[in-house]
Structures are given as C-alpha cells and as structure tokens.
Amino acid sequence: MDAAHLQHIIDSVVGYMYPNETDLHWSILIVLYPYLTGLVAGAFILASLENVFALRALRPTYRLALITALSFLIAAPLPLLAHLSHPFRFWETLVTPHFKSAMAMFGFVYIWYLLVVLLLEIWFEYRRDFVVWSRNTTGWRSKVYRWMTLGVYDISESAVAFDEKAIRTITVIGIPSAFMLHGYVGFIFGSIKANPWWSSVLMPVIFIFSAIVSGIALVMLIYLISNSIRKVPQNMECLDTLGRFLFYGFIVDFALEGLDVIQRTYAAEESFDILYALVHGRLFETHIIFQLLIGTLIPIGLLGMIQMAKVTAPTRLAIYWLVGFAVQVGIFFMRWNVVIGGQLFSKSFRGFTIYKLNLVGREGGLAAAFLVLLPVAILIFFLWFLPPWKEDKPTTTLAE
Amino acid sequence: MPPQLSRLMIIFGLLAVLFIVSRWVAQPPSFNRYGHYRGDALEEISSIATNYAALNSCADCHEDEWKQKSEGPHSKMSCQSCHGPGQAHVTDPSEANIVLPAADKFCVRCHSKNNSRPRNFPQIVVKEHTEGKKCTVCHLTHNPSEMK
Prior knowledge:
The complex is a heterodimer of chains A (400) and B (148).
Chain A: H1 3-12, E1 14-15, H2 28-52, H3 59-75, H4 78-83, H5 89-95, H6 106-136, H7 139-148, H8 157-190, H9 203-230, H10 236-267, H11 272-280, H12 284-308, H13 313-339, H14 341-344, E2 351-352, H15 365-385
Antiparallel strand pairs in A: 1-2
Helix pairs in contact in A: 2-3, 2-8, 2-9, 2-13, 2-15, 3-6, 3-9, 3-15, 6-7, 6-8, 8-9, 9-10, 9-13, 10-12, 10-13, 12-13
Chain B: H1 3-26, H2 40-46, H3 63-71, H4 79-83, H5 87-91, H6 103-106, H7 108-111, H8 126-130, H9 135-138, E1 139-140, E2 143-147
C-alpha cells in the first residue's frame, strides 16, 4: 500500500480507530465471494424446485439454472485466491485439513458441492445428449462429447430412467449441500463474536435466503436475455412462476432481516449506537438506498403487485426485467454492507474509518469487474457447448 | 450395477487415490509432531534474530531512567514503546543505538485532546498547553507527572 493511500484513509478517520482497524483487511474481493457463491446456491435451489416439487412451468430454466450455477461456482473461489496474495496457499488447506476451522473446511465443502452435487447432476442430466451429440457432431467437439459420456453409450429407456432417478437422489443431497455451501459463509461472519455487525445467529439463514433470492433473479435475468438474443417468445408461465417464487423468497428474506434489525434495536446492546450511526452515516447510500430501497422494497412492491392485481403481460415482463437487475444490485450491496460495513467502525465503538476502492491493483475495481464478468464468459461458453434449450416450448407466451 | 454408476465409481476412486497420494507426498514430514503445524517451524522461528530486547534489560545499564519510569504513570509501559526495538543496542551498545523520539510530536500522539479517548485519560489541547515548547522543557522525561 502506498503512503498517499494510507494518508488519505487516516485523514478520513472520524473519532478513534485502533491502529490495525484503520485500513480494511477484507476488500471488495471478499464482497464478491459471498455474492458469487450466493448466486450458485440460489440457482441450484431453483433447479431443485423443479425437480423436487415437479414444477413443469420451471422446466425451461432447469438446465439453465444448473449451468449458471456451474459457471459461477468455477469463478467463486477466484476472489479468495486473488486475496490470498500467494494463491497456492490454498493447497495447504487440502493437504493438511483442519477440521475445526470453518475457513479451512471451505475447500472440502467446495469440492463436495462441485464434484458430488453439481457436476454429477449435470452429467446425469446431459448424459443422453452427450451420446447424441457425440454422434451428430464432428471434430474436437465430437471427441469431447465422447469423453464426457465416460464410455457409457446406453440411452435405452431403462438407462435414462436410471439417470432421472439418480438426479432426484442428487437433488435431495444437493439442497442441504447448497445450504451448507452458502450458509457456512454466513456462519463464518455470524461466528465472529468481536464484531457486533456480524455476530448474529441469524446470519447463516439470512445468507441462505438472500442467496435464493439472488439466484432466482439471476436465472430469470439470464432467461430473459437469452430468449431476447435467440428471438424466442418469452414464456410467461415460466416467468410468472419464477416471479412468484422470487416473491416468496423475498418475503422470507425481508422478514428475517427485519427480525434481525428489530432484535438488535430491542436488545440495544452497547454496540447499538455505533451501528445506528454506521447505517445512517457511512452506509446510508449502500444500505438504505441500494440494498433496502432499490434491492428490496421496490422489487417486493412490484412482485407483490403482480400477485395481488391483474397486470398485463407486457407490464409483467417489464417488471421482471427491472426486478432482475434491481435484485442483483441489492444483493451485491447486501454483501458489501456486511463485509465492508463490519470493518468501517472501530471495535472501541468510538470512531469510523473509510474504504477506498482503487481502480487498479490486485484488489481494485478492474480486478473485481473481471471476476464478475468471468463467470458470465464461462456461462456463454457453456450455453454454446451444452445448449440447455430442450423442451423450451412455452404454453403461454407474451403474444397470447 | 448400471454402467453409469460403475464408471463414476472408478473416477471417484481415482480421485480419492490421487488425494491420498498427494497428501502423502505434499504433507511436510514434521507436520503434526506437536500440533496442527510443522514441527520444524519452531526451530526456524527461534533461529530468526529478535528485534525487541527483554522488557527489563534496559535496567542493567540505565538504572536512573528505569527508576524514574517505574515511579511514574508510564511504569507499565515498555521502554521500547517509545524508544523502538532495542535488541541490537543491548547486544552491542557501541554499534547500534535506540531511537530518541521528538518530544514535541511524540507525546501528543497519545495525549492530544480527543473526545473519543476515555475522560480520565490525561489529554491536552496542544496549542494552548505547550505554547510551542517541547514537553520535556517542563516535564520530567521518564516520569512526566513530575515537573522539572
């Protein structure tokens, strides 16, 4: 860190900060990590809804949700590795497993989720297609599809029926695994007793429900965008079902966060004054405007309106576009407010520091933008290589 | 057993073997000798040269200053809190010396008036209190509660 950067931060300190609190240790990269894993867990849970509750209306988004989850899961650990400075330090957590450390166990949770849940479910879901594509394509694509069949070319009815059974079993294991993947991020924050902004038993549950909200909204947005690009009519039955589940997820998420605020206000522990000043001061824009107003109240209001009143299809469609973007903004800033907000106030409860995001550098804005765009690029590749557009025949479209 | 399952079991089996082998190869031999860390690390760390001297090593030579400090409000503070790391000076006083902090800038780091400091902590509004003079003009350096 250069001296001018540190001087700027020191000049912006209000009140008293301990020396080791002045410059933040956890930067935007640590904000990105829960944001990305939340999208993974949310997208997977959406895919599971279709499977577990047999929601046919969500069928067009099933595969899309799975490969969205995979794309974001591949990119999810990269912010953490970049933050480590020496990325290969992660290797130590695998060869010397520490079962009492939540952070050290992340590598195993991640590998479990990647190998045992997501890749397996995708493999069983696409296995029949791998066989067909390996025959219908030529060149390297055909070869890769052939490798991906793992040498199993049986696509008889009984073999496909076994695949479907396997998918249902994996989903049953997958839902608690998705909760574990993202709940544990909340668990780490919630377990930090010294920080009153983080220390809450509700934290893992809030993280899970905000993940569900962000994942459903992301898949909805990708579905809307991909249909527009492919010039396919928007499937309103599917979108309305997504909107309904997004609304339910939001209600639970909002209720939990509200409960957290009410409990903190009622308990009014000694940290309450500094947290009140934090939310109304340094976090006002990101917490009240972006997270609460744009990311929560407006989407809940609009989605609630669709549930309660008769809204025409074009208006509903416009609302889904708007909500899709608004929720991404809201959930990103929810992660921001947790990670950055928790470091802005002194543990002496007597002062505030600032977080200055640089543009360049390992923990700068450009690096963060790259890490957000990377999973999108991976997703575009997967959409081309593993096209998910099976059974995408809308029962009701915008035209009707 | 369906062929899908047997193929997957082979792959997962290979991955498990790969993990066990890489753990066996990559885990340092002294790991877990005393706890969840490399046992050799203790020797490596203890062989690093120290910067800070033992807390009471200053008293061996600077008896007067030590006595003055122990009678004042800074009695619980280490000499090295103000004078910086002193091991090199203790090892060879003729080669290395300790830092002499600037009395006009150093004391006010802790004692300038700041509302977020505890109320009973001695604090001054620097401009009014010092009138441009160094603190040590009036205060005894190693026992600032006493005046010169």
